[in-house]
Amino acid sequence: MSSEGGAFSPAAGALFRRGLMLILSSPSGAGKTTLAGNLLVQEGEACILSVSATTRPPRPGEVDGVHYHFLTRAEFEARREAGAFIEWAEVFENLYGTPRNLVETALDAGQDVVFDIDWQGARQLSESAPDDVVRVFILPPSRDVLSQRLSARAADPPDILARRLAGASEEMSHWQEYDYVIVNIDLGESLAALKSILSAERLKRWRRPGLAAFVGGLMSES
Predict the structure, then answer these.
(1) Which domain holds residue 182?
(2) Which of 138, 36, 54 is nearest to 91 (CA)?
(3) Are strands 94-99 and 53-54 parallel, antiparallel or unpaired?
(4) Which helix (DSSP H) or strand (DSSP E) does residue 24 occupy?
(5) How many H-runs (helices) and E-runs (strands) does the chain carry?
(6) For the chain, what percentages of helix, strand and coil (3-state, to nearest 5) are there?
C-alpha cells in the first residue's frame, strides 16, 4: 500500500487487521439468518458467510455449496475424523460442521466470517480460537412471535416444528455464554446494533498485528 507520494506508509501496516469470526446464534425463528443475510449484503467483500456442511436433506430452493454443503452421514463422519471441520454438532438428528480451510484463509486475509450456528458450535469455536470469536445471541421479542415466525416459514414438517419450539428454551438457556445480546423486535434496529458491534470489534488491539511496530516507530521518531 502506498501513500499519496508513492512511498510506503508505516500506517499501512497499522491499518491491516486479522479477520474475526462473528457468531450469530438464536432459537429457530428468532431472525439470525435474516440478520446475517442483510449484514452480508451491506458489508460486501469485507464479510463472507461460513457455509456449513450438513447431513440433512436440502429444502426447496437450497443449492449445494451455496446454502450448505450437503453430505451423506458417512461422508461427514469421514471428514470429521480427518479434522476437516473447525467445529461440528448434531442438531435434530442431523450433523452440521464448519469447513476449516475456508475460515482460516479468510481470517488471515483480513476478512470477517459470519457464522449462523447454535450454542454447541459457538462453544467449540470459543474454546479453539478465543481471540478470533465475537458471539452475538439473537432473542425473539416474545414466545408467541417465535411460534408465529416458525409457522409462517413452513419449511419443516409439524413434528420438527414442534421439536424446534420445544428446543427453544434449551437454546435460549445459553444466552449468558455470549458477548452481546440483541432482542430482535425491529429488523432495522437489530441490524444497526449488529453493525455497531462489528465496527467496534474490528478495532480491538489484538486484531491489528502491525500496530505494535507502528507505535514503536512513532515513539522513536525525533
Answers:
(1) 17-203
(2) 54
(3) antiparallel
(4) strand 21-25
(5) 9, 9
(6) 50, 20, 30
Tens digit of pLDDT at every position of the chain (222 positions): 444 444 446 666 678 899 999 999 998 878 888 999 999 999 999 999 999 999 999 988 999 988 899 999 999 999 999 999 998 888 888 999 999 988 999 999 999 999 988 898 899 999 989 999 999 999 998 888 887 777 666 556 677 777 777 778 888 999 999 999 999 999 999 999 999 999 999 999 999 988 988 898 889 876
Secondary structure (3-state) at 216: helix
Name the domain count of the chain: 1
Query: Is the residue at 7 inside a domain?
Result: no
Asked if residue 85 is part of any domain, the answer here is yes
Could you give the maximum distance between any two Cα atoms of the chain, in Å? 72
107 neighbors 21 (Cβ within 8 angstroms): yes
Whole-angstrom Cα distance, residue 125 to residue 162?
Answer: 29
Q: Does the residue 67 lie in any domain?
A: yes
Q: What distance in Å separates the CA atoms of residue 6 and residue 57, rounded to the nearest whole number?
A: 54
Q: Is residue 211 part of a domain?
A: no
Burial of 138 (0-12, 13-18, 19+ CB in 10 A): buried
Q: Where do the DSSP E strands lie in 59-214?
A: 69-70, 85-91, 94-99, 112-116, 133-139, 180-183
CATH number at residue 42: 3.40.50.300
